[in-house]
Amino acid sequence: EQEIYYKWTDELYFKLSKIFKLANFRNNQLKAINSTLSGKDVFVLMPTGGGKSLCYQLPAIIKNGKTHGTTIVVSPLVSLMQDQVDHLLALDIKATNLNSRLNAEQKNFVFQLLVNGELDLLYISPEMINASKKFQTVLQSLFRTHNLSRIIIDEAHCVSSWGHDFRPDYKQLNYFKENFCNIPIMALTATANTFVINDIIKNLKFNQNNMTLLRQSFNRDNLFYQILPKNSNTKIMVETIKKFILENFKNQTGIIYCHSKKSCEEVSEMLSSLGIKSAAYHAGMSANERIRVQKSWQNNIVQVICATVAFGMGIDKPDVRFVMHYTIPRSLESYYQETGRAGRDGRYSYCITFYSFKDVRKLQKMIQIDKSLKKENKTVHLNKLQQVMTFCENQFECRRNLILNYFDEKFDSNFCFQNCDNCVKKDLDLTETDASQIKEQDITETSLQIVDLVDSLGSDRVTVISCQEIFKGSKSAKIVQSGYTQLREHGLGKEWSKQDLERIFFHLITLKVLQEYSVMNKCGYGSSYVKLGPEARKLRNRKLTITMKFTITEKR
Ligand code: ADP
Ligand code: ZN
């Protein structure tokens, strides 16, 4: 690929090495930088850890571009903003941030810095645009004096309501193009399919005649993906993990993601007692404690970190050899981001997820009772969880292919080169007589029977599990005594395996055909029971067909 020589090229390479102390550009960085310095609008789709920050931090200190002055960076998380600013200040780049946590005096100080041209970069939270008229005035004056260099929208997927993390505040960001139409804009994200990208470009009012769209493959070819069944006994699990580490990654670094503080601590303590230096990391610890743990992990004093998802943002350790999910992640986005922390140095690394349906249920409940989530968001989260479940239960298709397809990327699984459990299995299958297959199956009739059953139970308080047992035809004492063996629907589901029934019920809850409700007992503990959901009527009126994917093993 021929590299074009621009008037800023020398300055660019000089500052890359002198200020950022980096030897070369990574994939797409140079293209993004040259485009924005030429005055184009740029969209950058780059995986987490790909190096998005450099795409706008370096141009922000280039004097020979089409525009110069201050770069405004919109970023959704105040804590990440501060990290970035600290990092820049350490490099002697003039940066600060502006958010609603500052008091009036502090804000005025920032405005003064801006007006005096003393800032290369200003990080703002999106609500500042509308929250502060004064800020708007300052921006206008920067614009008039040609000191507004470019606008950066970080985590740009937040702009689109089709993206996975829509923020209403991001909708107002069309403000920039509406007021400063010739100031270049750059939007960056690690997660957006074609549809979302177009939505973002439209919402931000990109100059469609003068723009660059940069998207690169999300394939991480040095990562091996594997899903293993999870045993409910923590001790057995930790033994397994220990064995795995000693056999494959003795003295090498890894991360184990757990879903709760308690589980982080439990796993970490057990691993330590088995002689593997590990530490817990979660939001329940003080900031100082967390920094200490992170540092000792980064310096290889601690080998394994057992963390909740709070860990990892902005962490860059290139030699992470394994990432394990002790509990499944809540979405495939998280799966990709968290596993993506392995092998940044390009060397072979492992991503292992321990899967059990029990954990799916646990997370499902956590989402259902989460007071911070709005109703419609709960559905989104439940659907995402179900996608993770389907991914984990898939024992047939290339994992790489599944992940990349999820991110809207076409991938030929021949290019997985046996780097996932299913591809390895496929190779073995050639010599075996069993072949597994994923089949989509219509389960509308079964769903109707289940709806009838739940209806027959009336106002009885029955848990999802009991309901499954009745449907399967259990004659346990409890069920016989309650008279449920007399129900017409008792045993209608006897052909289904227990596991498939669990999945079907879960699916029906996700689709809101069934619903769980909690009743508090005297001690304040809630038990949840099942009832018909708002979509049950649609199913009964035959306005809803339900399908599900199943793994079918057939003997040839
Ligand atoms: P992203 O925002 O895409 O997740 P970052 O901008 O935080 O990624 O960069 C991830 C890591 O990669 C950082 O530690 C950064 O210093 C490093 N990095 C970025 N660009 C380069 C480069 N050209 N060469 C080497 N390291 C780089
Ligand atoms: Zn594969």
Automatic annotation (TrEMBL):
<protein>
    <recommendedName>
        <fullName>ATP-dependent DNA helicase</fullName>
        <ecNumber>5.6.2.4</ecNumber>
    </recommendedName>
</protein>
<comment type="similarity">
    <text>Belongs to the helicase family. RecQ subfamily.</text>
</comment>
<dbReference type="GO" id="GO:0009378">
    <property type="term" value="F:four-way junction helicase activity"/>
</dbReference>
<keyword id="KW-0539">Nucleus</keyword>
<dbReference type="GO" id="GO:0031422">
    <property type="term" value="C:RecQ family helicase-topoisomerase III complex"/>
</dbReference>
<keyword id="KW-0067">ATP-binding</keyword>
<dbReference type="GO" id="GO:0000729">
    <property type="term" value="P:DNA double-strand break processing"/>
</dbReference>
<keyword id="KW-0378">Hydrolase</keyword>
<dbReference type="GO" id="GO:0005524">
    <property type="term" value="F:ATP binding"/>
</dbReference>
<dbReference type="GO" id="GO:0006312">
    <property type="term" value="P:mitotic recombination"/>
</dbReference>
<dbReference type="GO" id="GO:0031573">
    <property type="term" value="P:mitotic intra-S DNA damage checkpoint signaling"/>
</dbReference>
<dbReference type="GO" id="GO:0005737">
    <property type="term" value="C:cytoplasm"/>
</dbReference>
<feature type="domain" description="Helicase ATP-binding">
    <location>
        <begin position="33"/>
        <end position="210"/>
    </location>
</feature>
<keyword id="KW-0413">Isomerase</keyword>
<dbReference type="GO" id="GO:0000724">
    <property type="term" value="P:double-strand break repair via homologous recombination"/>
</dbReference>
<keyword id="KW-0347">Helicase</keyword>
<dbReference type="GO" id="GO:0016787">
    <property type="term" value="F:hydrolase activity"/>
</dbReference>
<keyword id="KW-0547">Nucleotide-binding</keyword>
<feature type="domain" description="Helicase C-terminal">
    <location>
        <begin position="240"/>
        <end position="386"/>
    </location>
</feature>
<dbReference type="GO" id="GO:0043138">
    <property type="term" value="F:3'-5' DNA helicase activity"/>
</dbReference>
<dbReference type="GO" id="GO:0003677">
    <property type="term" value="F:DNA binding"/>
</dbReference>
<dbReference type="GO" id="GO:0005634">
    <property type="term" value="C:nucleus"/>
</dbReference>
<dbReference type="GO" id="GO:0006260">
    <property type="term" value="P:DNA replication"/>
</dbReference>
<keyword id="KW-0238">DNA-binding</keyword>
